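Objective 1.3, modelling of assemblies. Example input:
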Amino acid sequence: MRKHIAHMVLFVGLLLGFDRLIYTAAIYMRDHGRHPQGIDIIYQDESWSPEIVFLGDSRTKRNFDMLAVESLTGLSAYDFGYDNASAEEALLILEQFLSHKGSPRVVVFEADPPMLDKAYGAFHREDFRTHLAVVPEPEDLLRPHASTMQQRASAFAVTWLLKSASLPNRIPDLLEYWQQRNDAELAAKVQIDPCGPENSMRCRSYNGAVNFMHGSNGNMTARTLPFSATAERKALYEYVVELSKKNKFSLILLQSPRLSGGEAYSAELKADADSFFCGLAQSQRNVLYASVIHAGGIDRDASLYWDWEHFNDLGATKISQLIAPLIVAMANGSRPEPCMLQ
Amino acid sequence: MLFNSALFLFFFAGVAAILYATPPNLRWIVLFVASIIFYASWDYRYLLIIFAIAAVAYVFGHYRGRLDESRGRWALAITVILILLPLAFFKYANFFLANVEPLFGPLGSSLPTQIRGIILPLGISFYTFQLLSYCVDVHTGRYTPRESFARLLLYPMYFPHQIAGPIMRPAQLMPQFEAPKTPSFEILASGFRLFLWGLFKKVFVADRLAVFVDAVYAAPDRHRGLGCILAFYFFAFQIYCDFSGYTDMALGASRMLGIELCENFRRPYFSRSLREFWTRWHISLSTWMRDYLYIPMGGNTLGPWHWAACILAVFALSGLWHGASWTFVLWGVYHGALLIFERAAGAVTRLRPRLWPDGKLRHAVAMVATFHLVGLGWILFRSPDLATAIAMLNSLVSRGGRNIYEIMPSGQLLLAEIGIIVVLIGDYAAERAVINDFARLPLPLRWGLYYLAIFLVLLFPGSNEIRTFIYFQF
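Predicted structure (tokens):
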């Protein structure tokens, strides 16, 4: 009997030992791998916290130039835009950033009218897998206390018992991160790399933004983006406004331009969206709604666009110049007006 | 509370600890309470259905002895109907309404086509069949009821087999509840091993194959050729690893609680005939169908035509038991027809043995042919409707589908293939009794295999989400 108990204790002890060994090795690979990309920065370098953060989909990731924003505002900036990200994904990134000692002065949150539609964008769980043991369900984001017994049991198990359970299918990615560790110096500030094997275009990635796309891909024909605002998304934006108040940062709900963007959706839908976002801005002094879709004829100059929805390097610099004064004003707590419709 | 979830492991550890600390004659109470909690964790409202039909079975069981044969038969018929009512309503009402409407022509349009909001209570097909076998066994004298109502409730509700079997007979399970023994270390280890093997089959193999299979069945036309061929093989192993994985976990968990459940799978893909396949696949359902339907219908005692009719009827009902859909009925009829054909072909080869000489080659060919015939049946089983099944069959013999790596990355495909090979090696070892006693392997090798399985499940699960079991929908 005693021998059997000793065997069981030894078995469990070795299991926990192997588990911690695997977990430690995985985290080492994560933290000593390539230059942080995307949300890596939230988890890997808690000592650095950008003062301006951008959140949204590819039109956030590709439409702004963080170098220009930093030089024009004098504040550090980081772009958390993700291709085809939903508003829920942007919100989770913001929450993660805030909960990891992030203390931004200004958050620029994409407020493109279609983002008011629940069906617009996707929640890419895999974007968080390298960092989060338990990725919340999108619908749980606005009611974080409604976690089920199942979720609590999983969270407890991966936090206290078998930590390697938080690494499902992540080891190959982490190994790849680690193998790219020698790229870290090169990528410390500005990373220039081919944007895709199918074209010779070159991109510049700096602090999350990818905005060095020369010229255009020729797809300049605007198309209609049908959408209908949903209660869930409206609640999400209201929640973001609440977060801004609670965490004391200024919030810019920004609608950036498209080429001939006026044709993307009806005037009625646009007016409804403007009315909703303006209402949010009017309810809080630290919130600004900026719809700069026509500012300076920026939606008419095709030379600024990579395709009809995304800027190239010239456009990214121009829009960054346009919004920099707004960011500075909001960072200083002097909102020019609640709603700017240009 | 799925077996492959952290919550179940905590729950199980708690139940086992309390059970071992309880005197043997009171342990059934621990199992009873645990089973109630287990079922209530899905939906406590459906407990009422189990309570109600168990009450019907209890009344029949305890009054059957006071009735003569004729009245007893009537009482049994009424009891069977009452027990089947919830299953008929929850599982088949909408199927019936959808199919009856066209029969009435213009009048049919006034009939409702479906009853909204029906949710199939988890495990209803399984616990209904168990209570039916209780009543029939009491009626035929194969089982003498002595238990209290609560103990009878434990029979269908016992949590390791509550949701997807194996379908146990009262004489197999009831006596074990009287005073479950504390398992010895060897039995504990064997239960743990079985649970781990089932977990590996489910999480590492079945869940990974499911990702590929789901994508192909969602659009068979887009995955013509190799994609569909792989999905054909992958689903055969997905359903095997999913269901036998569940069963292994159920058997393993139950063994660790001191209760033995019956075997449900015996390496079915090593079968050399359809007949053999059905003695190795979902054994508890096959034997249930044999004992409670096929034999009472006359079986093979009334001539070959009657036998063929019995086989077709029993397999069609077996298909319908799986799901209220024509694809399941056709799947059952397909297997019935194959069995009839196989028997006819067997008669011919017995008359002319040179046509099909016995030997290793014959065995290998028979095994491969059986596997592929079963696989073709799985297309009906997996397809949500006949159109999808036909599209799958078309796409199997067509070319020009998308690159399979668009469905699943090469690394994941490799892991899927490794998983299948490991399962086949494990089954082969068991089939050939290569490893007669796993416990006699050197300790470092044994533990190394345990750790390997645990970390493969933790680090390389087929899906990052906890996926439910296929048979939970039945």
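The mean pLDDT of chain B is 89.
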